[in-house]
UniProtKB/TrEMBL annotation:
Annotated keywords: Acyltransferase, Transferase
Pfam family, one: Acetyltransf_1
Protein name: N-acetyltransferase domain-containing protein
Gene3D superfamilies, alphabetized: 3.40.630.30
Gene Ontology MF annotations: acyltransferase activity, transferring groups other than amino-acyl groups
Domain of life, per lineage: Bacteria
InterPro entries: Acyl_CoA_acyltransferase (IPR016181), Bact_Acetyltransf (IPR050832), GNAT_dom (IPR000182)
Keyword Disulfide bond on entry: no
Residues covered by the N-acetyltransferase domain: 7-170
Length: 170
């Protein structure tokens, strides 16, 4: 497994973001309406404003290669972007579009991806990271809580979100 910093316009990033948005739209709670797809602005996910990462690895499941010959394929992604803050404040970065392809789940890679994003936010001057998510994403909520994220009031008007989190970076 390896993490590759790239752009959101990279073909692998576009493929993974397409899967992410399709999955979110398919699983979006109907009582909340229709999921709104908003592809990330490429200028917001490049240093010093942010980063975008593609996780690459072998397609494995329970320790076995699922499809021999499919090594070093795009298996996940995520990014951070700087939020607008007054000049005298330490910047806060927002975690966005964390996604793992289904065969890549349950192997600890989401935690590795999140750690990389948090480390990069810190290297860009952040004292904290925030994120929004939907209550229907139970696995995501568990991941964030395990990683020390705390529930906070809404910091944006994302119509897809029902929960907001923050983590101070030590």
């Amino acid at each position: 497994m390896r993490l590759v910093e790239t752009t959101v316009t990279d073909p692998d990033a576009q493929l993974l973001l397409g899967h992410y948005f399709a999955s979110r739209a398919d699983g979006f709670p109907p009582e909340l309406g229709t999921y709104r797809v908003t592809f990330p602005d490429p200028t917001r996910f490049v240093p010093p404003h942010g980063v975008f990462v593609v996780l690459r690895g072998d397609v494995v499941l329970r320790g076995e290669v699922v499809r021999p010959g499919y090594a070093d394929v795009p298996l996940g992604c995520g990014g951070i972007r700087r939020l607008d803050t007054p000049d005298d404040e330490t910047p806060t970065f927002e975690v966005k579009h964390v996604w793992l392809e289904p065969p890549a789940r349950g192997q600890g890679w989401a935690g590795i991806l999140m750690q990389h994003l948090e480390d990069r936010a810190k290297s860009l001057g952040a004292a904290a990271v925030v994120l929004d998510t939907n209550a229907s994403l139970l696995g995501a909520a568990k991941l964030y809580t395990r990683r020390g994220y705390e529930n906070i009031p809404a910091y944006n008007d994302n119509p897809n979100a029902t929960n907001w989190y923050r983590k101070a970076l030590a």
